[in-house]
Specification:
Layout (H helix, E strand, L loop, with lengths): L26 H4 L9 H12 L3 H28 L1
Length: about 80
């Protein structure tokens, strides 16, 4: 004869309160303000120094973003006058 296998599956332990993301959490913990930098001015100087080699690329992205916004505002008006 064949062996009989158990018909029930093993239960996995679950935490009673599961929050968002890994590690869970509750709403009060999510609403807390972030940590403040100890030396904000020094951190900003360091960040600007780090991004200095990319300044032309950043400038190009800002210019294209402004142009894109301008064209998306103007184009419906132009199409309205054409038709």
């Amino acid at each position: 004869m064949s062996e009989q296998k158990p018909t029930t599956r093993p239960q996995v332990a679950q935490s009673p309160m599961r929050g968002f993301g890994p590690g869970g959490g509750n709403v009060a913990r999510m609403m807390q303000a972030g940590e403040k930098a100890k030396d904000f001015k020094g951190t900003m100087k360091s960040l600007i120094r780090y991004m200095r080699p990319f300044r032309y690329w950043i400038l190009a992205v800002v210019i294209f973003a402004i142009a894109s916004t301008t064209f998306s505002i103007i184009s419906p008006k132009l199409l309205g006058h054409m038709t």
